Amino acid sequence: MSNSKNKVVEPPREVTIAVMGATGVGKSSFINMASQSNLKEGRSLHSCTQDVQIANQFELDGITVTIIDTPGFDDTSRSDSDILKLIAAHLEASYKSGYILSGIIYMHRISDPRMTGINVRNFSMFLKLCGDSTLKNVIICTTMWDTVSPEEGADRELELETDFFKPVLDMQGHLVRHSPRTSSTAQDIIRRIIKNQPGVLQIQKELVDDNLGIDETTAGTELNKELLEQAAKHREEMRKVEEDRERAIKENNKMMEDILTKERQKLKDEAERKEREVAEMKEDYIAQKNSVETKLRELEEKARADQARVEADYQRKMENLMVELGKANMSKTEEEVKKLKEEIAELKKKQGQKKGKCVIQ
Ligand SMILES: Nc1nc2c(ncn2[C@@H]2O[C@H](COP(=O)(O)OP(=O)(O)OP(=O)(O)O)[C@@H](O)[C@H]2O)c(=O)[nH]1
Ligand SMILES: [Mg+2]
């Protein structure tokens, strides 16, 4: 006899997974390998993925998988707050539409000899987006194993396990290798996620359930704190530069005065830019969210129209085949009737596979 305590919770039939990590770690190429998609991959030092993008849905062990690709927080062309607003707006919209992530893959290059400021910033932002309760659904996936010796890679992996990525591993998250770099290894990594119980990320809870502004979320508060600290540092440097500039004026050193005037302006602009980012974060986020929601609505409408077209096409083809079959019973050979029946069965099968495929995240 079964009771509710022993009841097995069925894994979902459709899962959504997000992939995050610094620029150039191999997020898009991993997703392409897992899902046979064609997301653009980077060729240079500049950030490649500029927007949140969704890979082709694919079937894995009977489960429909959707993977979301994201830009890294160290984007070479946009600020960290722009990236936070972009990712948060998508996460908020997908949660509102009822999609809960079954897992998050955080990618890291095993070839990075040490943890740079960029790596630290990216990972710390990632932890603040997730919150402790979803870390059990996190997989840290290391890439670029073909560019290091096995010993070097294993040493770094051990160091990462016991130090940098410990907060995730302590909460039952996992550390895996994308090695060898094949579709089948990528899909094995996805397999580890599809049986998870989906979990709402901290940023989604804060924005949707608690109705907080982006600047009040854990990630937003932390980012604003960092930006204000950086702005204060620039202003402090500005004061020092100003003292030197006044000295140069007194000494009639025109060349030094010009250099210091330019330096002072640079620091002022930088401080103001960061202060502006903080001041405008909330308003900018609302605009970003509206734009993402509009885009998603348009995609949803397009998907519905496509679905309706497919249905209409199916009905038309089916009607034609049925008319043919009606005639065939009188005038066609047994072989021709058999062929028509096979065509009808094939059409029905195709239609069944197409149903439920136009999911919008
Ligand atoms: N040798 C090697 N190259 C890799 C590996 N993974 C990715 N690459 C290459 O690294 C480059 C960057 O990969 P992307 O998948 O575009 O990286 P990304 O994380 O999506 O980068 P952004 O979109 O800029 O955030 C591409 O040329 C990939 O082919 C790997 O394991 N080994
Ligand atoms: Mg990319």
From TrEMBL:
Cofactor(s) the protein needs: Mg(2+)
Major localisation: membrane
GO biological process: protein transport
Cellular component annotations (GO), alphabetically ordered: membrane
UniProt keyword terms in alphabetical order: Chloroplast, Coiled coil, GTP-binding, Hydrolase, Magnesium, Membrane, Metal-binding, Nucleotide-binding, Plastid, Plastid outer membrane, Protein transport, Transmembrane, Transmembrane helix, Transport
Coiled-coil region list: 224-357
Subcellular location as annotated: Membrane; Plastid, Chloroplast outer membrane
UniProt GO molecular function: GTP binding; hydrolase activity; metal ion binding
Membrane topology: Single-pass membrane protein
Lineage top rank: taxon: Eukaryota
InterPro entries named among the record's database cross-references: G_AIG1, GIMA/IAN/Toc, P-loop_NTPase
Sequence ranges assigned to domain AIG1-type G in this UniProt record: 16-159
Name of protein: P-loop containing nucleoside triphosphate hydrolase protein
